[in-house]
Structures are given as structure tokens and as C-alpha cells.
From TrEMBL:
Protein name according to UniProt: WD and tetratricopeptide repeats protein 1
Pfam family membership, one: WD40
Superkingdom field: Eukaryota
Keyword Metal-binding: no
Alphabetically ordered keywords of this record: Repeat, WD repeat
Length: 722
């Protein structure tokens, strides 16, 4: 038995060879079996209101939590009891707590909705720093691993401030310790929502804002500067709370406001964005959380009203548009040969009209497992070289095709994901997953299908179905000019296949859309006497400076995405890597569930009920297989593997129908991108001090979430018919 599969041999080897210790810890810290046994082992009760943030001490011996009750509680997770309660002195919801490395090792910082940052001595129970430099909610704090006494704050005034406890700090209208000022190159309505520091390269700092871009800065190239907060009105702040589009926020900004000079050099930052959001006409997408993996080479971002995206910060991927891989460029003399040879192509079982994914009218050979395998589909092409599909992968593909034929697109995608992990260079798998994604229709699926088509054509230049599906994807993304160019290339390269009825229908659809687009542009030009208005996300922000425009144009695409949860109700929802080797991704959801994804396949492996309303926080223990979560309830829950058998092995929080939970969340998230939940989120921003409020004071800060939960339950699809 190999080292990787034998824990006894691995443990012996670890004792003999010291260099095997880290590998052992990373591999066996969290395994598939442990994930299947994960369950709630205890509830920590001390807070009296919603728990908004959790933070493990580096040693793992203590857990800190911050709440709407304005208290910070320190827990001993092993004794399962409260160690100390610190009255923070905040007058608003605590959104972030962070241990600050200091000579005494006893400091903890907190940021809250009252726009104040406070640093507390945990032993003396006294405040050693009270900073009022921010003018809006402080959402996150971060500490670099190599700099004791230093921490950063991110707030909705658009500022990232840097603090050093060894230096004297005083507050004034002009901030002297500004590291990043988003308002200087975007607009006064820019907000910083989250922040994270790379654990391996602490000079790299990632932030998320009230837009879909993730910004990665190199702090070595940035000097602290002074900045004055831009003028703001209550109307502007109120409008931003409703999640209005960025152009509506901009209209409320003071036109006389002049942005201060930026302290950011051109090459100090790299932007990341999911490609379909780069020009998508939808309400502003907000990043609610960013986190690095343990190796520091990947960045995870949880987007409000969207999915979770993973970015590779070392291998920057360009945004996908219509430009075919060089391997697909064929000469005129080879077009006929290419077209003829592809009639017998081994690259796909999907009909290119998208109506079937099966193997209809193909000669088949029955296998031992009972599935029928087309005799001409045993091979796949990699850069023009035909190779045999491994039997395990072939079986997965056949099962996925069968699911697709039955209309079960969720499980079809699930199986294709697994197959691609085992055989990433099979064009047929990418092509088949593309059509399954288009049929599933979750937010971002069409763009993901476009990426798959591009990959399939990169692997096999003669895969005509992938070329056709690429044109369909571009059309569904409303990128009609690119779709037209792509389809014209398809017709010239594959003239025989282009005679199909589905091809004629797509061509007519693209031409009709182009005509309507041209008419709108002409009408806009004639009515306004100016060039047609570009409705892309970037163009809705007229105050973008040249640096910001350049940075956005160079934005990199995502590597992977994780779907199934719902993130519309709160703007503090987290997503984290789970496992010493980052084997899993975990996130909370508006349906009160914890979602756990396999890191490699991006498939959901478990869903656990963790809150009656919303799960916001999930923080893995630094060394043990232990997970702490919190949400709208007043408790902190601890999760760990349960016994393999016996009465304690049963997990009552298990959600059996994972697909139903994921589908309901995607439907709810799509329906409420512009709707009621953004309005209810207002209650999470403000305290209602009026004596005439119909809600008791203790319910004010969480009432929006309760209402949102009622709305969720009222709209959630049921399994029973009327």
C-alpha cells in the first residue's frame, strides 16, 4: 500500500524522516472520511445578539467573537466555556476582531459600525487605542504575520489605514496613516468591504470593495499618505445601502469634489474579476470577503449576489472573449479536409443544437458495467494527438451523458467536473460540460461554458461543436458583435456543419440582435447628439481616473468558481479554505446552511444546517480539524468529526438533498439581485433611536435578517404540488 493511502506507514515515516512531517500534517489534517463525519459538537452561549465575527488565536487555544451586543468574548474551545468577556466600548455592531501581535501578546483589536477602532489589553481589560479616523463602518481588520504591533483597517469610507502600536496616534479630519484611498481614483462613494494579507508574502494585500473587482496591492511600493475624507450626504449613503448601481451613487456625489492625488504607482496593483462581470449590466456586485490559501498563491473571493471565485495570483489569466486559440486557425485549403474529418470526430457526444447530450444513432459496444459506449468515442484528442480515455473517466462521461439526456443538468455538471480533474486535457469533457452549464443556467454558467469552449478548441482545433457553442455563449452573453465574428468563422471553417437548422436559427438570432443594437445606438446618438452610451460597468463611473481605467482593463480572470450558496442578505458573509492543504472551501448561506466544496472538482460534498436564518462566519482552526461558525443566532457553533458508529455518529443537521438546496439558493439569489433583500439590509446598517420604533431595541439590529428569512421561506420552492 502506498504512503499516501496508509496512515500507519505515513506516521512511522514521519517519525523517521523529519521532512515528511509537514506532508503528513497537511494530508491527514482533513480527509474525505473526516469531512463525511463532520458534525456540530457544541454551542457556545454568552452573547445576547447576533455574532458577526470570529477569530482564532495563532496557537489555536482561544477563539474570539464579536457581536451586535458590542461585547468581545474569548472562548476556550476545548473546555467549551467563556474565558473572558470584554466590554468593547463600541456603540455599534462589531464587525471584526483581530489578535494583534505585541510584546505582551495580550492585545485584540475591534472594528465596528460606529466607525471606531479600539485596541484592548485582554489582561488589564482596558482600551489602549481609540481611533475615530474612519467616517463610516469599519468592516475588517488584518494583521501581517511578519510585523508585530502592526494592523490594517478597511472601512466603508473607502480608506485602508495602517496602524503601529509603537507609534503615537492622534485623530483629526486629515488622516496621516492612509495606505489606500479608493476615493482618490474611483469616486466618493467607493467603499472597502474586506481585507486580507498574504500569509506567505505579507507584503501582498488584497481588498474587496463595493464593486466586483478584487484588488491585490504590493505594500512595498506604497507609502503612507495624508488624506481628507470626501464630503458625503446622508442621501448618498442611504442610496448605497439599497445596493443601487454605481452610476446612481455617483449622481449623489458632490460635483465640486476634487479627488486627492493618489499615492499608488501604476505597477503596484493587480485587479481580478470574473469575466462576465467585467461589463455586465446588473446591480452593483459587492465583495463580502477575501482570503488567501495557506501557500499564498490563491485568493478566494465571496461576491454578494454572485458566486465564490478563486484566483491564481501567480498565473494571471486573461479575460475570455472571442479570439480563437492559435491552434484553431486553419488555412483555406484545409477547411474542407477539416470539415470532412470532423464528421467522424471523437470529440463529443453532444448534438450542437443543445437538445441532446447522448450518443444517438452511434454504433455502440456494451461494457461490463451495463453502459453503452459508442465505439468511435473511445479516444480523445490532445493537441491533435488521439489518446485513449481511461476507463474510469469514460464511465463518468457516459453517466454524465445519461444525466444530461434526462434533464438532470446539475448532476451532469457534477460528473463532468470529476472527470475533468482526472483527465483535464480531454476536449470532449470540456465541450460536454459547456452545454450542460448552459442548460443549468446558474449565474455565471454561460461565461463558464465559454471558457470550456475555448479550452476545448485549444485542445482540438477540429472540434466544431465547441466552436458552435462558443458562438451561442457569446450571443447569450449579449456580446453580439463577437458572436457574429465567431459564427462567421464557424461557417467558413465548417461549411457542411453550418447547413444544420440549428446553425441557421442561431445566425438569424445573432443578426436580429445586431440590428436592434444598431437601432438603439442610432436612436441614442440622434437624441443626445453624442456618441452612443456604453452601458458597461466601467462606463457607469464617470469619475474613474486613468490609473483605474488601466487597472480594470488589465484585470485577470478567475481560475475556479464555487456555486450553490446564496449571498444577498448580509455583506459580511465569509468564504475560507478548510484543511491544512486547502482541500476544501467552506462558506455560509442565506438559507442558514454551511456549504462545503471539494477544492479540486468544485463540487459540493456536504451541506449542514447551522443557523435558523443566515450563516455569516466560518473560521477553521489553525491546526486541528475544528470549525467555528456563527450567524444571526446568538451562539457560536463548533464542528468536528463525530464517531464513525454509535448513537453519536448521527448528524441531525445534515441536509440530504444537496441539489435542491443549491437550486433554491441560485433561484433566490437571481430573483433578489435587485429586490427586497437589499432594502431589508438597511436595518443592518443603522440603529433606530426613535422612541416610536415598532421594534424593541434588542431586535433592531437583527430584524432585517429575520424579515429576510421570512421572505426566503415564503419564496423557497417546495417539493409538493398544489
Amino acid at each position: 500500500m502506498s504512503w499516501d493511502n496508509n496512515i500507519v506507514s505515513a506516521n512511522i515515516n514521519r517519525q523517521i524522516q523529519d521532512n515528511s512531517r509537514l506532508k503528513f500534517e497537511r494530508k491527514f489534517h482533513l480527509t474525505d472520511r473526516l469531512i463525511k463525519r463532520l458534525g456540530m459538537i457544541h454551542e457556545l452561549k454568552e452573547h445576547t445578539k447576533c455574532v458577526n465575527c470570529l477569530e482564532w488565536h495563532d496557537s489555536g487555544q482561544f477563539l474570539a467573537s464579536g457581536s451586535d451586543d458590542c461585547n468581545i468574548v474569548l472562548w476556550n474551545p476545548y473546555k467549551r466555556k467563556c474565558v473572558k468577556t470584554i466590554q468593547s466600548g463600541h456603540t455599534g455592531n462589531i464587525f471584526s476582531v483581530k489578535y494583534v501581535k505585541s510584546p505582551s501578546g495580550n492585545c485584540i483589536a475591534s472594528g465596528a459600525a460606529d466607525a471606531v477602532i479600539r485596541v484592548h489589553d485582554m489582561v488589564a481589560s482596558e482600551c489602549i487605542l481609540n481611533c475615530t479616523c474612519h467616517t463610516n463602518r469599519v468592516k475588517r481588520l488584518a494583521t501581517p504575520s511578519n510585523e508585530p504591533n502592526v494592523f490594517m483597517s478597511a472601512a466603508e469610507d473607502g480608506f485602508v489605514l495602517q496602524f503601529d502600536l509603537r507609534e503615537k496616534h492622534w485623530c483629526s479630519q486629515i488622516c496621516n496613516n492612509v495606505l489606500i484611498n479608493l476615493t482618490s481614483h474611483i469616486s466618493p462613494s467607493a467603499e472597502v468591504k474586506c481585507i486580507s494579507i498574504n500569509p506567505v508574502q505579507p507584503h501582498l494585500l488584497a481588498i474587496g470593495a463595493n464593486d466586483p473587482y478584487i484588488r491585490l496591492y504590493d505594500r512595498r511600493m506604497i507609502s503612507l499618505t495624508q488624506a481628507k475624507h470626501p464630503p458625503s450626504s446622508s442621501i448618498s449613503f442611504l442610496m448605497s445601502s439599497f445596493g443601487r448601481a454605481a452610476n446612481q451613487q455617483q449622481e449623489n456625489d458632490d460635483p465640486s469634489w476634487v479627488p486627492p492625488p493618489s499615492n499608488l504607482p501604476h505597477n503596484c496593483v493587480q485587479y481580478f474579476i470574473a469575466g462576465h462581470l467585467h461589463s455586465k449590466k446588473k446591480p452593483a456586485v459587492t465583495c463580502t470577503y477575501v482570503s488567501f490559501n495557506s501557500k499564498g498563491n490563491e485568493l478566494l473571493a465571496n461576491l454578494g449576489s454572485e458566486q465564490i471565485y478563486l484566483y491564481d495570483i501567480n498565473k494571471v489569466q486573461t479575460l475570455h472573449s472571442y479570439y480563437l486559440p492559435s491552434s484553431t486557425q486553419t488555412t483555406v485549403s484545409s477547411k474542407k479536409t477539416s470539415s470532412t474529418s470532423n464528421k467522424n470526430s471523437t470529440n463529443g457526444t453532444c448534438e450542437y443544437n443543445g437538445k441532446t447530450n447522448g450518443t444517438k444513432n452511434q454504433p455502440t459496444a456494451k461494457t461490463k458495467n451495463g453502459f453503452h459506449r459508442p465505439s468511435n468515442l473511445k479516444y480523445y484528442s490532445v493537441y491533435g494527438v488521439k489518446q485513449l480515455l481511461p476507463p474510469k473517466v469514460q464511465l463518468m462521461k457516459e453517466q454524465a451523458n445519461e444525466r444530461f439526456d434526462k434533464g438532470d443538468y446539475i448532476n451532469a455538471v457534477w460528473l463532468y467536473n470529476k472527470a475533468i480533474v482526472h483527465c483535464p486535457n480531454a476536449a470532449v469533457l470540456h465541450g460536454n460540460r459547456a452545454i450542460a452549464l448552459m442548460k443549468r443556467g446558474w449565474d455565471g454558467d454561460v461565461y463558464a461554458a465559454l471558457r470550456d469552449c475555448y479550452k476545448a478548441l485549444e485542445l482540438d482545433k477540429g472540434y466544431f461543436r465547441a466552436h458552435f457553442r462558443m458562438a451561442r455563449c457569446l450571443s447569450e452573453l449579449k456580446r453580439y458583435k463577437e458572436a457574429h465574428e465567431c459564427f462567421e468563422k464557424f461557417k467558413s471553417t465548417f461549411p457542411e456543419e453550418a447547413k444544420d437548422q440549428s446553425c441557421s436559427e442561431l445566425e438569424k438570432q445573432i443578426k436580429d440582435c445586431l440590428e436592434r443594437l444598431k437601432e438603439r445606438e442610432e436612436a441614442s446618438t440622434s437624441s443626445k447628439g453624442e456618441s452612443p452610451r456604453n452601458l458597461s460597468f466601467n462606463s457607469r463611473l464617470p469619475n474613474l481616473n486613468e490609473k483605474e481605467i488601466t487597472w480594470r482593463a488589465r484585470a485577470a480572470d478567475f481560475k475556479q468558481r464555487f456555486c450553490g450558496h446564496c449571498n444577498t442578505t448580509t455583506d459580511i458573509k465569509e468564504a475560507n479554505f478548510f484543511g491544512r492543504d486547502d482541500q476544501y472551501v467552506v462558506a455560509g448561506s442565506d438559507d442558514g446552511n454551511i456549504f462545503i466544496w471539494d477544492r479540486k472538482t468544485t463540487n459540493i460534498v456536504r451541506v449542514l444546517k447551522a443557523d435558523e436564518a443566515v450563516v455569516n462566519c466560518l473560521q477553521p482552526h489553525p491546526t486541528d480539524c475544528l470549525l467555528a461558525t456563527s450567524g444571526i443566532e446568538k451562539t457560536v457553533k463548533l464542528w468536528a468529526p463525530k464517531p464513525e458508529d454509535g448513537p453519536d455518529s448521527v448528524e441531525p443537521t445534515e441536509v440530504e438533498d444537496i441539489n435542491e438546496a443549491a437550486s433554491s439558493n441560485q433561484k433566490l439569489m437571481y430573483e433578489n439581485q435587485t429586490g427586497e433583500l437589499a432594502i431589508y439590509n438597511m436595518g443592518y446598517r443603522f440603529r433606530f433611536d426613535s422612541d416610536n420604533s415598532e421594534y424593541p431595541e434588542e431586535l433592531v439590529q437583527c430584524r432585517a435578517i429575520v424579515i429576510a428569512k421570512e421572505l426566503y421561506l415564503s419564496k423557497k420552492p417546495t417539493n409538493t404540488s398544489e
